Amino acid sequence: MQVVQLRDSMNNFIDSNGVELVKALEDGISLLIDWVNFLESFKKTGTADELLAAVASTIRETAACIALGLVRPAMFSMRTQIDLILAWLYFKDHPVEWRVVNKTGDGFKLKKELFDYLTNTVDGFAARYGILKQTSTRSEVDTYRLLSAHIHGQSSLVLPVIDNLTDAICSRAMCDEAILLIKELSEYVGDVLYSVYASEYAVLPGITQSIKKRFQSGKQQTEFYATA
Fold first, then answer.
1. Radius of gyration of the chain from Cα atoms?
2. Residue 38 has pLDDT above 90, yes or no
3. End-to-end CA, the chain
4. pLDDT tens-digit map of 181-196
5. d(CA 207, CA 209)
6. Less Cβ around it within 10 Å: N or C end of the chain?
7. Whole-angstrom Cα distance, residue 105 to residue 102?
8. Residue 156: alpha-carbon gap to chain centroid
9. Longest CA pairwise span in the chain (Å)
10. Inter-axis angle of helices 172-197 and 71-91, to 10 degrees?
11. For residues 181 and 143, is the Cβ–Cβ distance under 8 A?
12. What percentage of the chain carries pLDDT values higher than 90?
């Protein structure tokens, strides 16, 4: 009986909200889509390229979940987007390590390890990323941390409460909140990538303009590009 109710509730939800939610998601994540297109077009190395393809897949997965009102699975998919982008920034230049990961399942890097790697190998990364953190428009600067809190149920506020199968389908209001989080995820990932590829600002016109609007002074902008 609950399965039938779930089917009916899901059909009603997607008929009433699905198209609008997917359009809103597409708008909210447009910055990340621009980045994926740029990386796919100009930055593939022949190693770990499938990670970039997987980012595009998880964006579609997130859209599917949101259209169905499944916010919690959508957040799993959203955090995966961050994991994949960070992993690609490392493994694209480490074919031996990537072969080991695929052969044994061992050697995948944690977020802290990957940020340390970028700090140690990309000149000016830490300084640029620090400036972008200061000018972020996100409600939570570390979007990864926020998503992890939901995924791991790190407080009573984010624990799932599912008494019936239909409870897995969230309200429209909760889906709208998830769309806002998607936009923040897009900015978070974009800040990491722009801190890596700031020297290529000329071939990233739309992204560059969105970043420049956030600088609070000419001095801040000068300091940012001085390390590029």
1. 19
2. yes
3. 60
4. 999 999 999 999 999 9
5. 5
6. N
7. 6
8. 24
9. 64
10. 10
11. yes
12. 92
